[in-house]
Amino acid sequence: MNIITQHNIGALGDLVRLTDHSTATAGGSGDATSVTGNTIDRMGFSTGSMPRSALMGVLYEATLASGATLSLAFAVQDSPDGTNWSDYQTVASAAVATGPNGGGVVKGSANIQVDLNGARRYTRLNYQPDLSASGTDTAYADGVGFFAGFDRLVAPN
């Protein structure tokens, strides 16, 4: 049976909060500090099967001085028991936002595609915000993910 994915892709996956809300102040609290994600039990979805892929990302809003940057690094981790974690996929730190002329607020998202076929039962997204300026630049962020690629889908209502 073919699935037409152009019609209602939202019915084929689940949107999940991956981290608690985080804040960072340049040169201070939260800056260049890893944010540990929430534990996601891949068997805990309503389908009764584990998702085989995910789009994970960080939604951010930063107040940046002119030319200053917000960079993010990612580590998707997996675990057999939700306690002992190993890096499954990492992304090196890269600038995701640059302050406009005169400084100001920049909003956006940074996403990574994750093939979960080789991952163990539990996953989480960790990320590290890094502000290039000192003192006044700030950022806040939340990790989110869309899990899909289930072996089975729930019956429609």
Q: What do these coordinates show?
A:
The chain has strands at 13-17, 22-25, 40-41, 53-64, 69-79, 86-98, 104-115, 122-131, 138-148. It has 157 residues and is mainly β. It has one domain (31-148): Jelly Rolls, CATH 2.60.120. Strands 1, 2, 4, 7 and 9 form a five-stranded antiparallel β-sheet that branches. The mean pLDDT is 92.
Secondary structure: elements and pairs:
Layout: E1 13-17, E2 22-25, E3 40-41, E4 53-64, E5 69-79, E6 86-98, E7 104-115, E8 122-131, E9 138-148
The average pLDDT is 92
Q: Mind summarizing the main beta sheet?
A: 5 strands, antiparallel
Number of strands: 9
Number of domains: 1
- The helix tally amounts to 0
Helix-strand string: EEEEEEEEE
- Which overall shape is indicated by the principal axes computed on the Cα atoms? elongated
Which parts are unreliable, with pLDDT below 50 for 5 consecutive residues or more?
A: none
